[in-house]
Design brief:
Layout lengths: L2 E6 L5 E4 L8 E5 L4 E5 L5 E5 L2 E7 L7 E3 L3 E2 L10 H7 L4 E5 L3 E8 L4 H11 L15 E4 L8 E11 L2 E11 L2 E9 L7 E9 L1
Antiparallel strand pairs: 1-4, 1-8, 2-3, 5-6, 6-7, 9-10, 10-15, 11-12, 12-13, 13-14, 14-15
Length: about 200
C-alpha cells in the first residue's frame, strides 16, 4: 500500500462512507482540518461533488471506508482570520506584502498544489461565503448578489478559466460597504501544479 496523509478542507467536515457514493452509510465524520490516511494504490471512482472534480478513494485508517478526495489537501488548512503572510510562514513558504494608502496586496506560491486545491485554502484566506461554490464545469461565473448573514456584503463573485476541464485560474470579488476585496488564484507551474494566490483589499 502507498499511504499518504491529507487534511480535510471541507468547512463543515467530511464523511467517510461504506461505499463510493453519497448514498452510502456514514462510518465517521472527520472535522475540518483533521488528518486522514488514503491508500493511493486503492480503487478510485471519479466523481464531481459541489462542482469539485475528484475521486472516491479508499481510507487506510482502521475503520476503512471511502471518502471524496476533492475535499482533501496535503497541507494544513488556514484558520479563520489567519493572514496570507502568517499562513505562508507556517508552511515555510515565502510571501510578499505591499501596502499603499488605499490598498493592501498579499501573495504567496503553493508549489505543489492544483488550482482547485488552492481554492479550498483561499476560501478561508479570502473569507468567502460558504454558499459561494465553484461554477459548474460548463459555466465560468458564479455570483451571489445579496447581503450575507456574516456581514454587510453587497456582492460576491467567482469567475474561472479552464483548460480541458482543469482549472487554470480563479478570480474572486467581494464588494461591501466601505471597500472591496479581490483575490486571484493562477496556475504558474507545469503539469497542473504550482499556484500563486493573491489577495487585494481596497478601501473606498
Amino acid at each position: 500500500m502507498d499511504i499518504q496523509t491529507f487534511n480535510v478542507a471541507a468547512l463543515s467536515g467530511l464523511n467517510i462512507r461504506n461505499i463510493m457514493s453519497l448514498f452510502g452509510t456514514v462510518i465517521e465524520r472527520k472535522p475540518h482540518n483533521a488528518s486522514i490516511n488514503i491508500d493511493l494504490d486503492g480503487f478510485r471512482l471519479p466523481a464531481v461533488i459541489d462542482n469539485l472534480i475528484g475521486n472516491w478513494v479508499q481510507v487506510a485508517d482502521s475503520q476503512g471506508g471511502f471518502v471524496f478526495d476533492g475535499y482533501l489537501i496535503p497541507e494544513r488548512m488556514p484558520n479563520k482570520g489567519e493572514s496570507i503572510t502568517d499562513y505562508a510562514n507556517s508552511l515555510e513558504l515565502s510571501s510578499s506584502k505591499h501596502e499603499t494608502e488605499l490598498e493592501i496586496e498579499e501573495s504567496f506560491i503553493l508549489p505543489d498544489l492544483t488550482v482547485q486545491q488552492a481554492f479550498l485554502i483561499a476560501r478561508v484566506l479570502f473569507d468567502m461565503s460558504p454558499q459561494l461554490l465553484l461554477p459548474p464545469i460548463l459555466n465560468e461565473h458564479n455570483v451571489i448578489e445579496e447581503a450575507l448573514p456574516y456581514g454587510n456584503v453587497w456582492e460576491e463573485q467567482l469567475s474561472v478559466s479552464r483548460d480541458r476541464w482543469e482549472l487554470s485560474s480563479i478570480n474572486y470579488t467581494r464588494i461591501y460597504e466601505g471597500g472591496a476585496v479581490t483575490g486571484t488564484i493562477v496556475l504558474v507551474g507545469d503539469d497542473g501544479v504550482g499556484v500563486e494566490v493573491i489577495l487585494r483589499t481596497i478601501a473606498d
